[in-house]
Write a structure and sequence with these properties.
This protein is an alpha+beta fold. The protein is built from two helices and six strands; from the N terminus they run E-E-H-E-E-E-E-H. A six-stranded antiparallel sheet has the order 1-2-4-5-6-3. The protein starts with a strand and ends in a 12-residue tail after the last helix.
Length: 153
Amino acid sequence: MDQDAPLCTHRGRVVMPVRWSDVDLFGHVNNAAYLRYLDDARFTLFPSMGVDELGALTASLLVVVKHEIDYVAPLTFRPAPFAVEVWVSRIGRSSVDFAYEILDAADPSTVYLRARSRMVQLDQATHTARAFTPEERELYEAYLEDAPELRGW
């Protein structure tokens, strides 16, 4: 997994390969593998999300409470990498929404997936919601951009 320069000033970008184990019997990336891609990119770009530099849990944890995903085009096994762009689309008192696009790394006009995740920050000791500190908010505000347009049900 390589970090590339972002295409947009408010997005982080992580370039990844399609692994053979990500592909299902239909020849395309399985929906569960996409969730791993989103998690991998988010944690690559936001290392302070409940884990310190040594891998130990911090006093607060961010947990996923909701995912919304639109599969736009099939991604198949191939040698060319893809890119996951991640940004923050909303910051609440104790929750944050991350937005994503999975694109062809060489041709960003080819979009495979659009998604967003809501995460709530919990205090590790009590597992109750904990408000973001000004420093935490500042980290997320650097990546703030509009949410992706997702199809309705």
